[in-house]
Amino acid sequence: MFIKQLSVFLENREGRLEDVLRVLKNNKVNVVSLSLADTQEFGILRLLVDKVDMAYSALQRNGFSARVTDVLAVKVAHQVGMLQELLAALGSAHINVEYMYALSVGEKEASIILKTSDLALAGEILHKNGAGIVKPDEIGLDFKDREAYNKLS
Asked: How far is CA 136 from CA 14, 15, 36, 42, 82, in A?
């Protein structure tokens, strides 16, 4: 099962990250995980939030450029070499990992967010290689309005 990730394009200047978080706070949207990558002038803020449709609309209304993308949340055992083995399995299937970042969901295992060139196949391969796929409700993402959520992809 894929998870909807919100990506926000930001100018790399003081206060812009806080501006995004204020919009989310004012709209009662909880951030579950985030990653911020930057260049000299711009950054990409990737977020998992509990109300993606509300967050997307609120950010658009406040002048932010945002996009919703499907990603995989993958449980990875805390064992030496496990991540490398999972990535090798994806590489053997010619699946490119476009980016990834950590997600904290428990003490006994780590989790990562993956964006790949083929999410469905990546999910199957990872599952076959012992990785669990995180369901949205396992990390507190709100799915009261599944129809609106699915329309954003």
From this structure: 32, 30, 21, 29, 23
Q: CA Rg, the chain, in Å?
A: 16
Q: What's the CA gap between 84 and 102, in Å, rounded?
A: 15
Mean pLDDT of 58-74: 95
Beta strands in the chain (DSSP E): 3-11, 31-38, 42-49, 65-77, 97-103, 109-116, 132-133
Q: What is the mean pLDDT of residues 36-57?
A: 91
* Structure tokens that stand for 19 in this block: 């501006």
Residue with tokens 């990785």: 131
Q: How far apart are CA 31 and CA 2, in angstroms?
A: 17
